Amino acid sequence: MSRGRLARWIHGAALALVAAYSVFPIYFITVQSLKTPQEDVFGSPFYVADPTVENYAELLAGPGTRVRGFVVLPRVPFVRWLANSAVVLGASLVVTLVAGVLAAYALGRLQPPGWLWWRRALFATYVVPHTILFIPLYQVLIALGLDDSHGALILIYSTMALPFCVWILSAYYRHLPREIEESALVEGATPATAFLRIVLPMSRNVLVAAALFTVGTVGNDFMFASIFLLDPTRQTVAAGLGVMDVSLEELVAVAGVNLAAIPVATACALFARGYVRGLTAAMVEGA
Questions:
Q1: What is the DSSP-derived secondary structure letter of residue 147?
Q2: Last residue within a domain, chosen from 75, 93, 114
């Protein structure tokens, strides 16, 4: 076997191992969510012999109570949690992208005094641990009247995702040829029209990268959602599943995790190429 073919085999094997490592958690929670309590205790953890959707049925049955043996278990408003998560995610995306595009264009294109240090300072905010921000954040939210509301999470998530979005978008706008906008201005377009109809569509892949980063920020959070949303009807999926009694409702909670992960995983799979292209465009251009 030639050295080139051997290198390709090693490269393929390494990629296969990485893919298996990445996909295995999804496979595992899917298998667990399709088990009965009996099979969960006595069956194999790696496959399901008698699949059932009863865990999903219980999860989607709505609020109320159900009886399992001698134990009365409360049902959870999972559909409401999904709707709350969708509202928070959608609003966070809109706020982050709108604010991020405007701030990034100002820093990367207009380049006001000290713009380079502003970019660095924004990105440096990620070194601040989130745990030390709970008390000041709570005081700010109380002052704004946003306690126990979705607006609190929208504000927090947008603030968390904005520095990275501004950083990569400003790097892209910084090196985008100015002749593109100048040509549009010569043809009679206003600066706003040139930006909206030419510059913004050209930054589509970088916007995809910023959007997926925001989705990850929202989807990975448990602490802020569980601290600032106390009303069960206002909670998101992460906060709601986190307070379930996993000693009695483990399989139902796993089914909820699986359902919540499906749209996020699907979006990441659909826009993976755009995500990579966006990061590459921003990084290569001198971020």
A1: T
A2: 75
